[in-house]
Amino acid sequence: MKKLMTGNEALARGAYEAGVKAATGYPGTPSSEILENIVQYKEIYAEWSTNEKTATEAAIGAAYAGRRAITTMKQVGMNVAADAFFFAVYTGMRAGLMIIVADDPGMFSSQNEQDNRHYAPFAKMPMLEPADSQEAKDFVKIAMEMSEEWDVPVLYRTCMRVAHSASPVELGERNWDDEKIPEKWVRNQEKYVCSAMFAQKKRPMIEERLIKLVETSNKIAINRLEWGDRKLGIIASGPVYHYAREIFPDATFLKLGMTYPLPEGLIRELAAGVEKVMVIEELDPFIEQQVKAMGIDCIGKDIFPRYGELLTGDIEKACAKAGIIPWEKVAEQRALTPQGLPGRSPVLCPGCPHRSTFFNLAKIKDLIIVSDIGCYNLGALAPFHATDFMGSMGAGFGVAHGFEIGGIEKTGQKIIGIVGDSTFFHNGVTPLLNMVHNGSNVTLMVLDNSTTAMTGHQDHPGTENTLEGKGKRVDIEKLVRAIGVEHVLKANAFDVKSVDAAIKEGLNHEGLSFIIVEGPCFFVGKNTKPAFTVTQDCNGCGTCFKLGCSAIARSEIVDEKTGRKKSSIDPVLCVGCTICAQVCPRKAIVSTQAA
């Protein structure tokens, strides 16, 4: 049976068919839907972990226990997980283990761009890359079998286009004995205790394994030569293979599904059989450099960009500039592509609990606002412009401490560090511990909207639910006080004055202050109240526009005294959060029930 599936849906199906028993991860676009789809398969334990390292260690433990396991993350999550899977390359496992990373070329939802293919040679582990949904499913079984045959984790690298594009998938069955109990654990310190005395003995074995894996790469069916016109031989992997096929339908191709270690024999066979070799790949010249290291000349990043996505039109333009294809072909394709579409800046949703925080922060002078990745990074944009720094998860606390020890407060400026509730549990506790221990004099804020909102409203330890049902909620205030923070404040996110008072008290306090701004994301509570409307008392002062709410716009009605256009509220978009009514100096915004 065939079914239309996205890459993430297909990958989840592949885990089911391959006999995976444990799946862990941390949400992050474009990987989030993998676990969200796995949870439908009751044979697989699924868990949102507190961060990627924790998730990876849990998956490693499951594989040690004898259960096939996977862990998922977005590209920046690999940096967090690396400490865990590097040692697993040395120990091996008792069952298959797959490290899934979804890269984000073009940084559509990430703070930086990175090519995680480099982790394969860095950690000395094999790597697979699917090109479409069918491969996304099929490669899971291949990865599991490879992991068990070679006693090593397998890096499974996908990307945004594979993750979110849909294509037909031939479904299979789960041929696995789910009732079978794992074999009893037998202590084997030489294998599983990763101390120097044992790891040193394994180091040569890891290199020997990589050499043998090259032969596997030469023979494995997912690496294949597709002979065509012998003038040009193209090496490609992932979705770029399909783009290149569209442009060069008659060329010879080496289609790679296993991209580390590379199939040196197939590459040399290709080079010997064509006049020119061209490597087409997104981001870094990962394949190209290895091909050139074999002494094979090839076209690559001398014509293709090293950053961003590499789509069909990008490949065509680069090849036309290099004289490989005529410009007429590019013009034909461009005529089919919509041109001049207007851009639209992202904004906080109507009813967002973060709005009152950034409205208040934007009014404070001489304040350094240190933040990190999440919905709240939209506070950096118009109309707030209330962020000075945004970085990795937890950096809102860690970098704020750095500003302090750097002496910035001697300039008369104060510091406030901001993280979200999910980020706090992910990587905010350790910098907080550091600040408590070192006597920091900084104000910190957790914007608690009761979910991991930006990546799709996943649960975290601060909520009562897990992927599989009911969990134990961790109270942020109790945790913070237990760590040693003495000055803890709480504010209602939908009470503008409450938030303003908490911020001012925190900034004026001598010593470490911790503010918890509580208010659920609208899409979690969905507590829609009657919409608000603008009365004739509005004089177009524009205060409500400083909230950056997409439900509020300028009308065509001009106030006779001020000459300014009055505000209007879209009743379809308004969710009745009341914040605009609270900040209106003329009380000209009222509930539709009261109007």
Q: Count of DSSP helices?
A: 22
Average pLDDT over all residues: 93
CATH class of the largest domain: Alpha Beta
Based on the coordinates given, report the CATH architecture of the largest domain. Answer: 3-Layer(aba) Sandwich
Tell me the number of strands.
Answer: 25
> What proportion of the residues is helical, as a percent range?
25-40%
Shape: globular
Binding site for [4Fe-4S] cluster 1: 538, 541, 544, 584
Keywords: 4Fe-4S, Electron transport, Iron, Iron-sulfur, Metal-binding, Oxidoreductase, Pyruvate, Transport
GO molecular function: 4 iron, 4 sulfur cluster binding; indolepyruvate ferredoxin oxidoreductase activity; metal ion binding; thiamine pyrophosphate binding
Organism: Flexilinea flocculi
Task: Please provide a written account of the structure.
[4Fe-4S] cluster 1 binds at residues 538, 541, 544, 584. This protein is α/β, with parallel strands linked by helices. Helix content is 36%, strand content 20%. The chain has four domains: 2-219, 3-Layer(aba) Sandwich (Rossmann fold); 224-333, Rossmann fold (3-Layer(aba) Sandwich), CATH 3.40.50.920; 355-520, Thiamin diphosphate (ThDP)-binding fold, Pyr/PP domains (Rossmann fold, 3-Layer(aba) Sandwich), CATH 3.40.50; 532-591, Alpha-Beta Plaits. The longest helix is centred in the middle third of the chain and has 24 residues, at 196-219. The radius of gyration is 27 Å and the shape is globular. The mean pLDDT is 93.
